[in-house]
Amino acid sequence: MNLLQIPQRFAARWLPVLTAAALAVSSCQVTKPLPVPTAARVPATFTPGTTHPDTASIATLSWRRFFADPNLVGLLDTAVQANPDLQIALQRVEIARSGYVAARGALLPTASAVAAASVDRFADYSGTGFTDTNNGRQLPTPTPDYFLGLRSAWEIDVWGKLRSRRKAAYSRVLASEQGRRLVQTALVAQVAQLYYELLALDSELAVLGKNDTLQARALEIVRVQKLGGRATELAVQQFTAQLLRTRGLEVEARQRIVAAENQLNRLLGRYPRRIARGRPIREQQLPAAVAAGLPATMLLRRPDVQQAELKLLAARADVAAARAAFLPSLTLTPYVGLNAYRAALLFSTPGSLVFGALAGVAAPLLNRSPLKAEYGRAAAQQQAAFYGYQRAMQVGFEEVVTSLRGVENYRQLYGLQTQEVAALNRAVAISNDLYTANYATYIEVITAQRSALEAELKLTTTRREQFQRLIDLYRALGGGWDAAATAAN
Q1: Which among 260, 250, 199, 216 has a CA at the least distance from the CA of 461?
Q2: Rounded Cα gap, residues 440 and 268, in angstroms
Q3: Region 431-458: what's the mean pLDDT?
Q4: Is 346 helix (H, G, I), strand (E, B) or coil?
Q5: How many angstroms from the chain centroid is the CA of residue 462?
Q6: Is residue 360 helix, strand or coil?
Q7: 3-class secondary structure per residue, 11-25
Q8: DSSP states along 130-166
Q9: Which end of the chain, C or N, has fewer beta carbons within 10 A?
Q10: CA separation, residue 398 to residues 42, 45, 293 (Å)
């Protein structure tokens, strides 16, 4: 007879009886399924009133194609490979995968190799110990007992509890992968923003250096005029103060460059060093048109939205598993091996051969508080996951609309400020000529120079903001990761 058929026949005969008995005794009342609120409808377009929105999106471009500066692309490649936060996120994926392997393994039977030895001293009136063995021999007292074989345990997933846990674990694996992508999109945006911050600071330093030269020349002219009796010491001190202020701004700019470079190096996973830059920020090209695509496309690409949705699926599976825990669990525990009361007889087969199977049904009857608490926890987590999903969609939509408007508004602002800088630079030249000809005061010259300096610094800041808004839009639409890069990592 096949030994494996015996546990199956035993289970087929007695499991229905045991299950019915357990259900009758426990009278389990499983809680009703938890209703999930209805999600708010996502608008069809990012700009209300648009009849023919663009279906393309800049988020589908990899960062190697989206960013034209090769120096920035090289920095991004380094960051994706060496950033510590991204490596930590990758390990979170591995942790989630281990959880899935454990949940999947719970569906399969376990088998253990067992070598056991025991000795018993039976009481004189126990009725055990003086009975004969199967071969007519009397058992010794104390009675040793030796077992060598296999023992197995298998919980049959009748109600889907283990399958629900496996589904929850798998959803968390996918959510952890989306979490890794979320870290990567944020990393790409941070590196790009810091890079353009460095370019803007370089431009500010260049503007300050140019004004330093102009103001130093003006100070020399005033000093010469003072010697000739055409200017006062007050004018000299005013020009000196303006020059010192500009040089102080230069020192501040240099310190901000150091801080930005160090922060960027940290994101790249390396110690401080100089960052190679490309062309000045005013010479960097911006796309003539920006395509945002449809909100549905954004929701399919944004890692935080996908992560929130997968967490919701995992929470629903947890609730299903918690509900199924109120029902009886069915367990098979077969065993096969060698058993004898003396070590010399242990391998005397078939006399020492032993096998058997136990089918057990366990149902929660008293003190079901832990099960109720687990169900309450799972239900609350499901509700929280739903609202987290709603929040992720609303935050994503808000970020896209804000960045989309920001790209256009800063484009207009940059055009206006460019004209303002040109006008103020002409005013500086005119004020210098008028002051030389005694038709303007030194206050007018200082005011013109200061206004021109502030306008140029604002123009540089606005150019930086243009790139910042564009990068924000790229990230908000779900850009910054691609399938090729994901597979490579």
Answers
A1: 199
A2: 53
A3: 88
A4: coil
A5: 31
A6: strand
A7: HHHHHHHHHHHHHHH
A8: SSB-TTSPBPPSSEEEEEEEEEEEEEE-SSSHHHHHH
A9: N
A10: 11, 12, 15
Threshold 0.85, pTM exceeds: no
Within-domain flag for 38: no
Task: Note down the domain range covering 49.
Answer: 45-110+159-328+370-488
Report which of 326, 369, 319, 378 is spatially closest to residue 29, judged by C-alpha positions. Answer: 326
- Please check whether residue 339 lies inside any domain of the structure: no
Residue 241: exposure state from Cβ atoms within 10 A (0-12, 13-18, ≥19): exposed
CA pair distance 366, 456, nearest whole angstrom:
78
Q: Rounded CA gap, 279 and 22, in Å?
A: 77
Distance, CA of 156 to CA of 327 (rounded, Å) = 12
For 476-485, b/e burial (b = at least 16 CB within 10 A) is: bbbbbbbeeb
Report d(CA 242, CA 227) in Å as an integer: 20
- Can you read off the two tokens belonging to residue 343? 């070590």
* CATH code of residue 437: 1.20.1600.10
Q: Which residue has the tokens 């230069």?
A: 250
199 belongs to a structural domain:
yes
CA distance 480 to 69: 15
Could you report the per-residue pLDDT of 323-375, keeping only the tens digit for each?
Answer: 999 988 899 999 999 998 888 888 887 888 999 998 888 888 888 889 999 99
Please state, in angstroms and rounded to a whole number, the distance separating the CA atoms of residues 426 and 155: 86
Q: What are phi and psi of 46, to 5 degrees?
A: -80, -25
Domains identified in the chain, total number: 1
Tell me how far apart the alpha carbons of residues 305 and 478 are, in angstroms, rounded to a whole number: 10
Phi, psi torsion values for 468, nearest 5 degrees: -65, -45
Secondary structure (3-state) at 180: helix
Q: How far are the Cα atoms of 183, 248, 295, 405, 474 from residue 189, in angstroms, in the given order?
A: 10, 31, 20, 18, 8
Express the helix, strand and coil content of the chain in percent, nearest 5 each. 65, 10, 25
As given in the structure block, the two tokens for residue 154 are 């298998």
Summarised one tens digit per residue, pLDDT across range 387-433 is 999 999 999 999 999 999 999 999 999 999 999 999 999 999 998 88
Residues 473 and 459: beta-carbon distance below 8 Å: no
Q: Is residue 141 part of a domain?
A: no
For the purposes of burial, counting CB atoms within 10 Å of the CB of 14, is it exposed (0-12), middle (13-18) or buried (19 or more)? middle
Secondary element (H or E) of residue 266: helix 233-267
Strand pairing partners for 356?
335
How many whole angstroms separate alpha carbon 9 and alpha carbon 354?
17
The answer to whether residues 331 and 154 touch, using CB atoms and an 8 Å cutoff, is yes
Which helix (H) or strand (E) segment holds residue 112: the answer is strand 110-120
| Joined tokens for residue 401 | 């609309």
CA distance 468 to 328: 58
